[in-house]
Amino acid sequence: MTRQLRSELFKQRTTRTTVTLLAWMVGVIVLIVALHVFSLSASLLRKAADQPKVYGWGTTIGSLFAALLGAITVTAEVRKAAASALAGALVGLIAEALVSVIGSAGFAARGIHIALTAGDFAQMLAGGAAAAALWGVIGTGLGAIVRNQTGAVVGLCVWLLLVETILVANVPAAGKFSPGASAGALAGMIQSVSAGTLVAPALGALLLLAYAGAVTAVGLIATERRDVA
Prior knowledge:
This protein is mainly α. It has 11 helices and no strands. It has helices spanning 2-14, 16-39, 42-45, 52-55, 57-73, 81-109, 118-146, 149-170, 172-175, 179-187, 201-228. Helix 2 (16-39) runs antiparallel to helix 5 (57-73) and helix 5 (57-73) runs antiparallel to helix 8 (149-170).
């Protein structure tokens, strides 16, 4: 198992798809964070409760690209979800760190005081990495279920960027239990809602574990049935 894990991690590090995906993630982060930092009013961004409108993007983007990496690089090999979890954690950490640096630089350029504490940033980095690790597993399971890279990629993008945003904004009582909002709870913030709307970090972790376990189980069943057929 260890040898297979090392082999899978090596494949993910050296394939052009992984490099391209990471490059796209960096570009998306730079664009989205810059747009929010320089388009939102300074009076809004000075409020501690509203600064996650910038910093919270790290969790969503990190989770999305971790899931995409799992879905397109380990499509039919759901048993190697451990590799996707490790790769996802790294992707999530990179995303959170980039958002922290770019967002803080933008705030400084506009003369806006950063109201978030060191503890907030620590939770964002650690929680965001953990959330992305679980989203990597979810992506792997989804890839095994769908067996179509385009379908998996489109489905993940639509869910995280559109469906969840609408759900959390309009039905927060139910939306806060969704996978994306659970990732935000684990990281302590997300761009779409206030932290007070999210569940507790521990519950967010349990929910994400449950989602990852359920998708992985379905992926295993789907893979075994195809092998038998």
